[in-house]
Design goal:
Number of helices: 5
Largest sheet: 6 strands, antiparallel
Structural class: alpha+beta
Strand order of the largest sheet: 4-3-2-1-5-6
CATH architecture of the largest domain: Roll
Distance between the termini: 74 Å
Number of strands: 6
Radius of gyration: 25 Å
């Protein structure tokens, strides 16, 4: 009788702990329609130095959200204006792929600290430490790969590589009304970093 009570209690505790571990989320009710959602995604920040404006000569570069790179034209939102620049007129361009510089050693430090934190798991350390090491190493290698990729620079990188991070990576086709495009709030400033 006592063992069946202990079994029932243990079962309820397991059910309650499982239930408590479940996450719920409210479905957002203000999602845009599919047609609007296409225009809401943003391109990455780009700084373009036209042929006549070389870095350091005092002239301002063309900078803002990269909208598209067509066959021979680069489209950039500068403030509230959509600017076009012929690719042949570009001396250099930098596209900021990430919002912050990645530090691979920091990712490795988090893996190490996470693995050390499994010391508090007691005997379950035998299962949780390898999980931290395996999945943490996979995640850290992704950070190292991304840090190696870094920002893209033309002419070292191709226009196709830069165009992959545009709002319209396939190009600004004729079906897109250019006057209806608006800047995206998440692409308003370049990342802060040492040059």
């Amino acid at each position: 009788m006592q063992s069946s009570r202990n079994f029932a209690r243990a079962s309820w505790i397991i059910v309650l702990l499982t239930w408590a571990g479940c996450a719920t989320t409210d479905f957002p009710r203000n999602l845009p329609e599919a047609e609007e959602a296409v225009a809401l995604t943003g391109g990455r920040w780009v700084v373009v130095y036209p042929e006549h404006a070389v870095p350091g000569d005092g002239q301002l570069p063309l900078e803002g959200e990269l909208i598209a790179i067509d066959r021979d034209t680069l489209f950039v939102f500068t403030g509230s204006d959509l600017q076009a620049c012929a690719c042949s007129d570009v001396a250099s361009a930098t596209l900021y792929v990430t919002d912050y510089p990645m530090d691979p050693s920091l990712a490795s430090t988090w893996v190490l600290l996470g693995t050390l934190s499994t010391l508090s798991h007691g005997i379950l350390l035998a299962a949780s430490a390898p999980v931290w090491l395996i999945f943490g190493s996979i995640a850290a290698s992704g950070v190292v790969h991304d840090a190696d990729q870094g920002d893209l620079r033309w002419p070292e990188d191709s226009w196709e590589a830069l165009g992959a991070f545009a709002r319209f990576p396939q190009g600004l086709g004729e079906e897109i009304d250019r006057s209806s495009l608006r800047p995206v709030a998440t692409s308003t400033r370049p990342p802060k970093r040492d040059q």
